[in-house]
Amino acid sequence: MNDRTIIEQAITAFEQRRPAEALKSLQSVIRTSPSPQAHFITGVILEFGGPDVAVDLERAISHYRCASHLIRNLDPLTLLFLARAHMKQGPARYPQALRYIREASQLRRIPEVDLAFAKYYEVAEPNIGLAKRYLVRGALRGSIAGALGLARVLRQTGCAGQACVVDAMRWVATPFVLLFVGRKSLRAFDGY
């Protein structure tokens, strides 16, 4: 069986809530070849864990770094996953998270970069004004998660009327966004 098939089977196993099986398959690929995709998916599994795999953020970061180095740090999503794993480790790791978010933004300004900055300014350096600005940018770049996040932040800050307007606009725009942007519009910084 080739590496691509093994990786596809590992992804399926993870989606079916069998992360230990997925990790075992991915480790066999990693042992035999330098596969950025195998490292990346291993990082996701270790970051989120599952029924038979404990969350291990340090190992997840290590695998994300390997994936990023193998592709010469040219993929913003890998850098954003690194940033998210660092943020999950708490305030001591926020500076590293910001560094990776900035690196991702220099590569390519995808909506997930704006969502990452928004999350950073919600959690690490609370600045709701900046968080809202980045959520608006993400939404305008076709991120449904950006619109959802903006409505959530507006509600939290007592702007329920504005949140309702954002929700109504999202309901109207979602079919068109899905049609023109596709499944990428569903990506969020907090998920995989």
Could you walk me through the main structural features you see in this protein, from its secondary elements to its overall organization?
This protein has 192 residues and is mainly α. The protein has a domain at 108-192. The protein has helices spanning 3-15, 19-32, 36-48, 57-70, 76-88, 94-107, 111-123, 128-140, 144-156, 160-180. Helix 5 (76-88) runs parallel beside helix 7, helix 6 (94-107) runs antiparallel to helix 7 and helix 7 (111-123) packs antiparallel against helix 8 (128-140). It is globular and about 55 Å long.
Radius of gyration: 18 Å
Shape: globular
User: For the terminal residues, how far apart are their CA atoms?
Assistant: 26 Å
Output the structural class: mainly alpha
Number of helices: 10
Question: What is the makeup of the main sheet?
Answer: none
Q: What is the arithmetic mean of pLDDT? A: 93
- Percent in strands: under 5%
Compute the number of strand runs.
Answer: 0
* Uncertain runs: none
Helical proportion, percent range = over 70%
Please write the string of helix (H) and strand (E) elements.
Answer: HHHHHHHHHH
